[in-house]
Design goal:
Helix content: 25-40%
Radius of gyration: 18 Å
CATH architecture of the largest domain: 3-Layer(aba) Sandwich
CATH class of the largest domain: Alpha Beta
Order of helices and strands: HEEHEHEHEHEHEEEEE
Number of helices: 6
Shape: globular
Strand content: 15-25%
Distance between the termini: 41 Å
Low-confidence stretches: none
Number of domains: 2
CATH topology of the largest domain: Rossmann fold
Structural class: alpha/beta
Mean pLDDT: 82
Length: about 180
């Protein structure tokens, strides 16, 4: 078996007696990697309470993904409700959105496509849904157009981040545009 290289910042974190968040890449773009984030600093970046928001997030991206961790910390910071799915079946997720009045859905383009392909998609009441954030992979313009056509009241926001860098804040000029800019300081 092959061992993964210990990240350079590992000793910086342990020398300070701080907590680390260990993430592993699958190696889809090359060799698998291990990344260590300073969990103490990551948590402190959410320490300043934001304005409390009465929003209900569906945590589609789980805690093995930097996007899921970021969403969880953001929800805890702003007092949002969290809906945790038992599985990732499109019909089940659509039902959760309807019954739990989910307002924010962070997910991937592949899953959004699977949702649209559900034969009963039009039968679900998705009126509670205010925003879908998407990332983890490229969004085809044709899919984004179909989504806006099928659920026009929903705002779509492309997110960006990597396991190595974490999540960066982005802005788009519109819900139908694939172009975004990174606005992180």
């Amino acid at each position: 078996t092959e061992t993964l290289e210990i990240p350079k910042n590992y000793s910086e974190i342990t020398d300070k007696n701080q907590s680390g968040l260990v993430l592993f890449s699958s190696g889809t773009t090359g060799e698998p990697k291990v990344m260590v984030h300073n969990l103490t600093e990551l948590a402190e970046s959410f320490a300043q309470p934001k304005k409390t928001r009465n929003l209900n997030f569906l945590l589609f991206l789980m805690f093995d993904h930097i996007g899921g961790i970021n969403t969880l910390l953001n929800c805890l910071n702003n007092g949002s409700a969290i809906t945790l799915p038992e599985n990732r079946n499109p019909a089940y997720i659509l039902d959760l959105i309807q019954t739990q009045k989910v307002q924010i859905l962070p997910t991937s383009p592949t899953f959004l496509n699977l949702m649209l392909m559900n034969e009963n998609f039009a039968d679900y009441d998705l009126s509670s849904l205010k925003m879908i954030t998407y990332g983890t992979e490229r969004m085809p313009q044709t899919l984004l157009n179909k989504l806006k056509e099928r659920i026009p009241s929903v705002k779509f926001l492309q997110t960006f981040g990597t396991s190595e860098t974490g999540i960066l804040r982005t802005e788009s000029k519109s819900s139908t545009s694939l172009f975004f800019k990174i606005v992180d300081p």
